[in-house]
Amino acid sequence: MTNVLIVEDEMPSARKLKSMLELVAPDLKVCEITDSVQSTIAFLSNNSVDLIFLDIHLADGNSFQLFEQLNIETPVIFTTAYDQYAIQAFNHNSIGYLLKPFGSDKLKAVLDKYRLNTQSPREQSIDYQLLGKMIAQQQVQPEYRERFLVHYRGKLKPVPINDVAYIYAENRGVFICTHEGRIYDINQTLEQLSEELNPRQFFRANRKFIVSVLAIVEAHLYSKSKLKLELKPAANTEVIVSSDKASKFKQWLAR
Protein backbone atom coordinates (compact mmCIF):
# COMPACT_ATOMS: atom_id res chain seq x y z
CA MET A 1 0.00 0.00 0.00
CA THR A 2 1.35 3.40 -1.02
CA ASN A 3 0.82 6.10 1.60
CA VAL A 4 -0.17 9.50 0.22
CA LEU A 5 -0.23 12.99 1.71
CA ILE A 6 -2.53 15.60 0.18
CA VAL A 7 -1.53 19.22 0.81
CA GLU A 8 -4.42 21.46 -0.23
CA ASP A 9 -5.98 24.52 1.44
CA GLU A 10 -9.38 24.06 -0.21
CA MET A 11 -11.04 21.16 1.61
CA PRO A 12 -13.60 20.45 -1.15
CA SER A 13 -10.72 20.09 -3.63
CA ALA A 14 -8.86 17.82 -1.23
CA ARG A 15 -11.90 15.61 -0.74
CA LYS A 16 -12.46 15.44 -4.50
CA LEU A 17 -8.86 14.38 -5.10
CA LYS A 18 -9.13 11.74 -2.37
CA SER A 19 -12.30 10.33 -3.96
CA MET A 20 -10.67 10.28 -7.40
CA LEU A 21 -7.66 8.42 -6.01
CA GLU A 22 -9.93 5.81 -4.46
CA LEU A 23 -11.43 5.18 -7.90
CA VAL A 24 -8.38 5.22 -10.18
CA ALA A 25 -5.70 4.01 -7.74
CA PRO A 26 -7.10 1.76 -4.98
CA ASP A 27 -3.53 0.75 -4.07
CA LEU A 28 -2.94 4.31 -2.81
CA LYS A 29 -4.02 5.25 0.69
CA VAL A 30 -4.50 8.90 1.70
CA CYS A 31 -3.13 8.93 5.23
CA GLU A 32 -3.41 12.69 5.88
CA ILE A 33 -4.67 15.97 4.45
CA THR A 34 -2.94 19.21 5.49
CA ASP A 35 -3.85 22.75 4.44
CA SER A 36 -0.89 24.93 5.37
CA VAL A 37 2.90 25.12 5.37
CA GLN A 38 3.10 24.76 9.14
CA SER A 39 0.71 21.82 9.45
CA THR A 40 2.56 20.04 6.65
CA ILE A 41 5.92 20.61 8.33
CA ALA A 42 4.50 19.28 11.60
CA PHE A 43 3.19 16.14 9.91
CA LEU A 44 6.28 15.38 7.80
CA SER A 45 8.58 15.96 10.76
CA ASN A 46 7.05 12.93 12.46
CA ASN A 47 5.72 10.83 9.58
CA SER A 48 6.89 9.47 6.26
CA VAL A 49 4.85 8.99 3.10
CA ASP A 50 5.49 7.56 -0.35
CA LEU A 51 3.90 10.31 -2.44
CA ILE A 52 2.81 13.92 -1.93
CA PHE A 53 0.14 15.84 -3.85
CA LEU A 54 1.12 19.45 -3.27
CA ASP A 55 -0.86 22.59 -4.04
CA ILE A 56 1.28 25.70 -4.50
CA HIS A 57 -0.81 28.30 -2.68
CA LEU A 58 -1.59 27.27 0.90
CA ALA A 59 -3.42 28.91 3.79
CA ASP A 60 -0.26 30.46 5.26
CA GLY A 61 2.05 30.86 2.31
CA ASN A 62 3.75 29.27 -0.68
CA SER A 63 4.36 25.52 -0.60
CA PHE A 64 7.94 25.98 -1.80
CA GLN A 65 8.66 27.17 1.74
CA LEU A 66 8.45 23.50 2.72
CA PHE A 67 11.64 22.75 0.82
CA GLU A 68 13.45 25.52 2.66
CA GLN A 69 12.71 23.92 6.02
CA LEU A 70 12.59 20.20 5.24
CA ASN A 71 14.74 17.80 3.26
CA ILE A 72 11.96 16.26 1.17
CA GLU A 73 13.03 13.29 -0.92
CA THR A 74 9.50 11.96 -1.39
CA PRO A 75 8.13 12.16 -4.96
CA VAL A 76 5.94 15.22 -5.41
CA ILE A 77 3.02 15.77 -7.78
CA PHE A 78 2.08 19.44 -7.89
CA THR A 79 -1.56 20.42 -8.26
CA THR A 80 -1.52 23.89 -9.72
CA ALA A 81 -3.56 26.55 -11.47
CA TYR A 82 -0.44 28.18 -12.97
CA ASP A 83 -0.40 29.03 -16.66
CA GLN A 84 1.48 27.27 -19.45
CA TYR A 85 4.63 29.37 -19.05
CA ALA A 86 5.14 28.26 -15.47
CA ILE A 87 4.34 24.67 -16.47
CA GLN A 88 7.47 24.74 -18.63
CA ALA A 89 9.46 24.93 -15.40
CA PHE A 90 7.82 21.74 -14.15
CA ASN A 91 8.51 19.97 -17.45
CA HIS A 92 12.12 21.12 -17.41
CA ASN A 93 12.60 19.62 -13.96
CA SER A 94 10.78 16.34 -14.80
CA ILE A 95 8.20 16.88 -12.08
CA GLY A 96 4.68 15.50 -12.17
CA TYR A 97 1.94 18.11 -12.14
CA LEU A 98 -1.81 18.37 -12.51
CA LEU A 99 -3.23 21.58 -13.96
CA LYS A 100 -6.48 22.50 -12.24
CA PRO A 101 -9.20 21.62 -12.95
CA PHE A 102 -8.24 18.05 -13.85
CA GLY A 103 -10.15 14.82 -14.36
CA SER A 104 -9.57 11.12 -13.76
CA ASP A 105 -7.69 10.64 -17.06
CA LYS A 106 -5.09 13.29 -16.18
CA LEU A 107 -4.74 11.89 -12.67
CA LYS A 108 -4.22 8.37 -13.97
CA ALA A 109 -1.61 9.57 -16.47
CA VAL A 110 0.49 11.34 -13.85
CA LEU A 111 0.24 8.32 -11.54
CA ASP A 112 1.44 6.08 -14.38
CA LYS A 113 4.45 8.39 -14.73
CA TYR A 114 5.05 8.19 -10.97
CA ARG A 115 4.93 4.38 -11.00
CA LEU A 116 7.28 4.23 -13.99
CA ASN A 117 9.79 6.45 -12.21
CA THR A 118 9.64 4.40 -9.01
CA GLN A 119 10.18 1.16 -10.96
CA SER A 120 13.10 2.63 -12.91
CA PRO A 121 14.39 5.50 -10.78
CA ARG A 122 16.66 8.03 -12.41
CA GLU A 123 19.32 9.98 -10.61
CA GLN A 124 18.13 13.55 -10.54
CA SER A 125 18.51 16.41 -8.15
CA ILE A 126 15.68 18.93 -8.14
CA ASP A 127 16.31 22.36 -6.69
CA TYR A 128 12.81 23.18 -5.45
CA GLN A 129 13.80 26.64 -4.25
CA LEU A 130 15.13 27.49 -7.70
CA LEU A 131 11.98 26.03 -9.24
CA GLY A 132 9.87 28.32 -7.07
CA LYS A 133 11.84 31.34 -8.26
CA MET A 134 11.50 30.25 -11.89
CA ILE A 135 7.73 29.98 -11.56
CA ALA A 136 7.48 33.35 -9.82
CA GLN A 137 9.45 34.98 -12.65
CA GLN A 138 7.51 33.28 -15.43
CA GLN A 139 4.06 33.69 -13.98
CA VAL A 140 1.93 36.07 -15.99
CA GLN A 141 -0.56 38.09 -14.01
CA PRO A 142 -4.00 36.57 -14.65
CA GLU A 143 -6.72 38.68 -16.18
CA TYR A 144 -9.80 38.83 -13.98
CA ARG A 145 -13.33 39.82 -14.88
CA GLU A 146 -13.79 43.60 -14.98
CA ARG A 147 -17.55 43.88 -15.47
CA PHE A 148 -20.82 42.03 -15.89
CA LEU A 149 -23.21 42.53 -18.79
CA VAL A 150 -26.76 42.26 -17.45
CA HIS A 151 -30.27 42.58 -18.86
CA TYR A 152 -32.07 45.61 -17.44
CA ARG A 153 -35.45 46.89 -18.68
CA GLY A 154 -35.03 45.29 -22.08
CA LYS A 155 -31.50 46.61 -22.54
CA LEU A 156 -27.97 45.41 -21.89
CA LYS A 157 -26.22 47.21 -19.05
CA PRO A 158 -22.55 46.91 -18.02
CA VAL A 159 -21.97 46.64 -14.27
CA PRO A 160 -18.34 47.34 -13.21
CA ILE A 161 -16.89 44.68 -10.94
CA ASN A 162 -16.14 47.27 -8.25
CA ASP A 163 -19.89 47.97 -8.01
CA VAL A 164 -20.61 44.36 -6.98
CA ALA A 165 -21.10 43.78 -3.25
CA TYR A 166 -21.78 40.06 -3.42
CA ILE A 167 -22.99 37.27 -5.66
CA TYR A 168 -25.41 34.60 -4.48
CA ALA A 169 -27.28 31.52 -5.65
CA GLU A 170 -31.01 31.26 -5.01
CA ASN A 171 -33.77 29.07 -6.46
CA ARG A 172 -31.57 27.69 -9.25
CA GLY A 173 -30.51 31.21 -10.25
CA VAL A 174 -27.38 33.29 -9.65
CA PHE A 175 -27.62 37.01 -8.88
CA ILE A 176 -25.31 39.94 -8.25
CA CYS A 177 -26.12 42.58 -5.66
CA THR A 178 -24.48 45.97 -6.09
CA HIS A 179 -23.36 48.30 -3.32
CA GLU A 180 -26.48 50.34 -4.09
CA GLY A 181 -28.67 47.30 -3.43
CA ARG A 182 -29.66 46.60 -7.03
CA ILE A 183 -30.14 42.95 -7.98
CA TYR A 184 -29.35 41.51 -11.40
CA ASP A 185 -29.71 37.98 -12.74
CA ILE A 186 -26.62 36.50 -14.40
CA ASN A 187 -26.21 33.32 -16.40
CA GLN A 188 -23.17 31.80 -14.69
CA THR A 189 -22.47 29.45 -11.80
CA LEU A 190 -20.60 30.39 -8.64
CA GLU A 191 -17.99 27.80 -9.57
CA GLN A 192 -17.30 29.58 -12.86
CA LEU A 193 -17.20 32.98 -11.19
CA SER A 194 -14.78 31.76 -8.53
CA GLU A 195 -12.24 31.28 -11.32
CA GLU A 196 -12.97 34.64 -12.98
CA LEU A 197 -12.96 37.01 -10.00
CA ASN A 198 -9.88 38.53 -8.38
CA PRO A 199 -9.27 36.48 -5.19
CA ARG A 200 -7.90 39.55 -3.43
CA GLN A 201 -11.26 41.27 -3.84
CA PHE A 202 -13.75 38.39 -3.69
CA PHE A 203 -14.06 35.38 -1.38
CA ARG A 204 -16.19 32.24 -1.75
CA ALA A 205 -17.79 32.23 1.71
CA ASN A 206 -19.87 29.10 1.19
CA ARG A 207 -21.83 27.19 -1.45
CA LYS A 208 -24.23 30.08 -2.03
CA PHE A 209 -22.22 33.30 -1.56
CA ILE A 210 -19.20 35.06 -3.03
CA VAL A 211 -18.56 38.31 -1.16
CA SER A 212 -16.56 41.44 -1.94
CA VAL A 213 -14.17 42.69 0.71
CA LEU A 214 -15.80 46.12 0.27
CA ALA A 215 -19.20 44.76 1.36
CA ILE A 216 -18.08 43.29 4.68
CA VAL A 217 -19.07 45.36 7.70
CA GLU A 218 -18.26 42.84 10.41
CA ALA A 219 -17.61 39.15 10.98
CA HIS A 220 -19.13 37.61 14.10
CA LEU A 221 -18.15 34.36 15.81
CA TYR A 222 -21.08 32.09 14.93
CA SER A 223 -19.94 28.92 16.66
CA LYS A 224 -16.62 27.49 17.79
CA SER A 225 -15.19 27.72 14.30
CA LYS A 226 -17.75 29.33 11.97
CA LEU A 227 -18.17 33.03 11.18
CA LYS A 228 -21.32 35.02 10.42
CA LEU A 229 -20.89 37.97 8.07
CA GLU A 230 -22.67 41.30 8.26
CA LEU A 231 -22.84 42.71 4.75
CA LYS A 232 -23.81 46.06 3.29
CA PRO A 233 -26.31 45.91 1.68
CA ALA A 234 -27.72 43.25 3.98
CA ALA A 235 -28.34 39.84 2.43
CA ASN A 236 -31.77 38.26 2.65
CA THR A 237 -30.32 35.23 4.42
CA GLU A 238 -27.51 34.52 6.87
CA VAL A 239 -24.05 34.40 5.31
CA ILE A 240 -21.96 31.85 7.19
CA VAL A 241 -18.30 31.12 6.55
CA SER A 242 -17.81 27.41 7.13
CA SER A 243 -15.30 26.11 9.66
CA ASP A 244 -12.93 24.78 6.98
CA LYS A 245 -12.75 28.25 5.38
CA ALA A 246 -12.75 30.47 8.48
CA SER A 247 -8.97 30.60 8.88
CA LYS A 248 -8.39 31.40 5.22
CA PHE A 249 -11.14 34.03 5.32
CA LYS A 250 -9.51 35.85 8.24
CA GLN A 251 -6.18 35.90 6.44
CA TRP A 252 -7.87 37.20 3.29
CA LEU A 253 -9.71 39.94 5.19
CA ALA A 254 -6.51 41.08 6.92
CA ARG A 255 -4.56 41.65 3.69
From TrEMBL:
Entry keyword ATP-binding: no
Residue ranges of every copy of the Response regulatory domain listed in the record: 3-115
Span of domain HTH LytTR-type: 148-255
Keywords: Phosphoprotein
Keyword Endoplasmic reticulum part of the UniProt annotation: no
Residues spanning the membrane: none
Name of a matching Pfam family: LytTR
Residue numbers of 4-aspartylphosphate PTMs: D55
UniProt cross-references to InterPro entries, sorted A to Z: CheY-like_superfamily, LytR-like, LytTR_DNA-bd_dom, Sig_transdc_resp-reg_receiver
A GO term, aspect molecular function: DNA binding
SUPFAM superfamilies listed in its UniProt record: CheY-like
Domain of life: Bacteria
Protein name (Swiss-Prot/TrEMBL): Response regulator transcription factor
Taxonomic placement: Bacteria, Pseudomonadati, Bacteroidota, Bacteroidia, Marinilabiliales
